[in-house]
Specification:
Order of helices and strands of chain A: HEEEEHEHEEHEEH
Distance between the termini of chain B: 39 Å
CATH architecture of chain B: 2-Layer Sandwich
Number of domains of chain A: 1
Helix content of chain A: 25-40%
Radius of gyration of chain B: 20 Å
Number of strands of chain A: 9
Structural class of chain B: alpha+beta
Low-confidence stretches of chain A: 1-6
CATH class of chain B: Alpha Beta
CATH class of chain A: Alpha Beta
Largest sheet of chain B: 6 strands, mixed
Order of helices and strands of chain B: HEEEEHEEHEEEEHEEH
Largest interface: A-B, 41 and 36 residues
Number of domains of chain B: 1
Number of helices of chain A: 5
Oligomer: heterodimer
Chain lengths: ~240, ~290
């Protein structure tokens, strides 16, 4: 079984089914300003994973919530019913909730909550198409949307996941690779500060392999962070030209 | 985790200062666990159960086994399910959404550590050992955790309790009467007299390192947890492999700090596993004597 799955995911020349090397990420497309009514928004594509995130606020916190000196970040992740191969996949509600929590945890430290006291910033993410690495795509896209909305942040957050299949470490896995993985790593990194805001490991890892995976992910996040900055600068320049 | 402890600034600086000089409020060093005690076979309806008391933290874990069909596409594997409940009887904060969120956080962290990858590799129990009849019948183990009282470090406590409950667990012997042909449905009889134990040698324990100031401590109390900036929970098995990792708390961590935390967790876990095994066998022999 072990061998079969390896054979299926890696070709004889060591490349993956989509011709990537194990340490290569999927082609990404990032664009801010996807939703005109939102304070800020972004659209991101990583291979076949497509997400859209809009940011609203800062606006008045709900009356029911207790008083808070610092601002609140409210994160909500939804999957469209056609995002997965099986319509409205069973257990989707659970992963919606879990993703919302993880998104919040990944962004919380990067956003300067003191800059909008007593108010709430809403981050709404929608997964249009789930093609693997959904959570990292959501986080990366949300961080762009927050920047687009002009929310004060200490740093932008880039996120990436990695699958361990047999002995191979596959960076930025596709849906197919994720469904056969023996273990996985997910990290969200503040790219300039090089600080991990959120990290999870599943499956069995030796220390050396864990540190190797961590390094791969961190490097990929730093590179992704550069791409994000370029995207923000270009979109901002475009916006000033238009006006 | 527990909000509203109402610590004064003097108490806060006492906690932080103690951790900085490696002498905590209760006399422990940074990397010392509190003393704990384990009771097994406390729930007669469950296949295995245990209660763990770790300082003021008190949790119960039970394992229930049911026969079912193997998961689709994986005829050689049994199933595990993990769930945690935080009752408001333990702390008023657990009422309503607060308890739900904490229960979900704890359940997810335990699932991450015990279920392994999507292929079933690296799970806390050899999933193949749970198969009764390939492709037709397997054991499904339900792990249920209950928090009775909370004084910090719930995740580690639950992992230890679940390990103890599993080693207390016996699966009744299944006799297949018909259905060994590939087309037929399986027919079986349960022999409630003979039990087979489950192999717990791969089962990891979780060690949570709580970062307070520049240092990190293991087995934090609720008061210490209220002062944390970040916490990393590492599941480690007997071989010293990492079986899952979860981060809590908002503050970012440098990758090198994370790696250092992992190595500390590995070191602490090995002595912890030895003392857990000793406690479990002591509890079992106590039980046999009665």
């Amino acid at each position: 079984m072990f061998l079969n799955s390896q054979k299926a995911l890696l070709k004889s020349d060591g490349t993956r089914l989509d011709d990537r090397l194990p340490s290569h990420v999927r082609p990404a497309f990032l664009k801010t300003g996807a939703v005109s009514v939102a304070a800020g928004s972004a659209y991101a594509e990583f291979g076949s994973t497509k997400v859209i995130v809009s940011v609203y606020g800062p606006r008045e916190s709900k009356k029911a919530q207790a008083f808070s000196d610092i601002g609140r970040l409210n994160c909500d992740v939804k999957f469209t019913s056609f995002a997965t191969p099986l319509r409205g996949k069973a257990g989707q509600d659970v992963s919606d909730k879990e993703f919302s929590v993880l998104l919040h945890k990944a962004l919380e430290d990067a956003v300067d909550l003191h800059s909008f006291p007593k108010t709430t910033v809403d981050v709404f993410a929608l997964v249009l198409q789930s093609g693997g690495g959904d959570l990292p795509a959501i986080i990366t896209c949300a961080s762009l949307a927050l920047a687009d909305a002009g929310i004060v942040m200490h740093d932008i957050v880039a996120a990436i996941s990695l699958s361990c299949v047999g002995k191979d470490l596959l960076l930025d896995p596709t849906y197919k690779e994720e469904s056969q993985q023996d273990g996985s790593v997910f990290i969200a990194l503040m790219t300039s500060r090089r600080e991990i805001t959120q990290v999870t490991f599943t499956g069995e890892w030796s220390s050396t392999k864990a540190s190797e995976a961590l390094e791969l992910c961190c490097d990929a996040c730093v590179k992704l962070g550069e791409v994000m900055r370029v995207c923000l600068k270009e979109d901002a320049a475009e916006a000033t030209e238009d006006t | 985790m527990v909000v509203g402890l109402g610590l004064s600034s003097a108490e806060k600086s006492y906690i932080a200062g103690g951790i900085a000089v490696d002498l905590r409020g209760d006399g422990r060093g940074r990397h010392h666990f509190r003393d704990f005690s384990i009771d097994t076979s406390i729930i007669p309806q469950a296949n295995g159960s245990a209660r763990l008391r770790l300082g003021g933290t008190d949790v119960i874990a039970s394992v229930k086994a049911e026969l079912c069909a193997p998961p689709p596409g994986r005829p050689h594997h049994g199933k595990l399910e993990i769930n945690v409940e935080c009752s408001p009887t333990a702390a008023p904060e657990f009422e309503g959404r607060g308890g739900e969120e904490l229960s979900m956080d704890l359940s997810r962290a335990l699932q991450r550590s015990f279920l392994g990858g999507a292929s079933g590799a690296g799970a806390a129990i050899d999933l193949a050992s749970l198969v009764v009849l390939e492709g037709k019948l397997c054991w499904m183990l339900y792990f249920d955790g209950l928090v009775l009282s909370s004084d910090g470090n719930l995740l580690d406590a639950l992992s230890i309790a679940m390990k103890a409950a599993l080693s207390n667990c016996g699966l009744p012997k299944v006799e297949i009467t018909s259905g060994t042909n590939p087309e037929d449905d399986a027919d079986f009889e349960l022999n409630e007299e003979e039990f087979t134990p489950v192999d717990t040698s791969r089962f990891p324990v979780i060690v949570t390192l709580t970062k307070v100031g520049k240092h990190y401590i293991v087995d934090a109390t609720a008061e210490e947890e209220s002062q944390m900036t970040a916490a990393v929970s590492v599941a480690v098995n007997k071989k010293g492999s990492i079986c899952g990792l979860t981060k809590r708390g908002g503050t970012g961590l440098d990758p090198s700090v994370l790696l250092d935390m992992i190595s500390v967790a590995k070191r602490v876990s090995q002595t912890l596993i030895t003392s857990i095994d000793a406690e479990i066998s002591a509890a079992e022999s106590r039980h046999d004597d009665q």
